[in-house]
């Protein structure tokens, strides 16, 4: 999931920006890099349904199986290990929501419905929360501006903004339960409230100023079906807990795992960009350099940035390239461009260094 699990509009206002940055030199597009990215990946641009289905189904089965083990196991140590395994596996399965926003659905038939039935509705993150929102982040004139639903200038904000950005994601499961068990039914009764729910509480966004438009056509129909499914599931789950059919312990473990998924995604979001843009429009190359690749040989990004998210900068060059082709695309492009190409400048060693750099940037305006 590219954006955080925070629902847009829950924060009263965006964290305060420290100071306006000094004027930056506008980065021109590097046409050699852009041509190489397009030309070297044409033969690997097709989605492979067997990989999508196998990866998503395997991750979901492992995640739910580990969640069940965490609930029923008595030894605390084993239960914790099972919960961690569940967080990692469900996070991977859930990350396919990002692929859903970019793929041609005819290329992997039934995948959108299958993912929503298996992951989106049970975890209360149906794909309509991301579809129609995430693509705005890739719009040429929106990226990094106030119209970008998935961008905040975190590197220019006060230091407390970073831990707050992560900690608030702990509440995501509670927020989603309220969204679907309470707000959805109320929106059916009160049309004005429904308008606000659609605009402010129906997008996985981190920009609190973002307001989404009401869907139309097929998107509207799918939205209503998936929202109804999530609402019925949320109400049913709360009813089963209230009546004792679902033990409170099991429910709390489920919430804990869901919070773990949200926090892990939020940390990944924190280092997905450098977050240094102050609202100006940027060239494609500038957008690329503000985004992060964490390629091999490091191994841990496969856990905290799964389903191709470790190649996030490359994804901004080639948004429609399927996740399973990004590794090969990176190898081809890195070998073809010159040593001084901007392409190499978006690659980083790992999570700790990215976090330290971001924290250092926020501290510059404190002194």
Structure overview:
With 367 residues, the chain is an all-alpha fold. Helices cover 53% and strands 0% of the residues. It is globular. The protein has one domain.
Q: Could you list some keywords that capture this structure?
A:
single chain, 367 residues, mainly alpha, 16 helices, disordered N terminus
Outline:
One of its GO terms (biological process) is lipid biosynthetic process. With 367 residues, the protein is mainly α. 53% of the residues lie in helices and 0% in strands.
Beta-strand portion reads under 5%
Number of strands: 0
**Oligomeric state of the chains present here:** single chain
Tally of helical runs:
16
Could you describe the largest sheet, including whether it forms a barrel?
A: none
Give me the Rg, rounded.
21 Å
Uncertain ranges: 2-23
Secondary-structure element pattern, one letter each: HHHHHHHHHHHHHHHH
- What integer is the average pLDDT? 91
**Count of structural domains:** 1
Distance between the termini: 35 Å
- Helical coverage, percent range: 40-55%
Alpha-beta classification: mainly alpha
Large-scale geometry: globular
Protein name: Fatty acid desaturase
Transmembrane segments: 66-91, 111-130, 162-190, 222-242
GO cellular component, one term: membrane
GO molecular function, one term: oxidoreductase activity, acting on paired donors, with oxidation of a pair of donors resulting in the reduction of molecular oxygen to two molecules of water
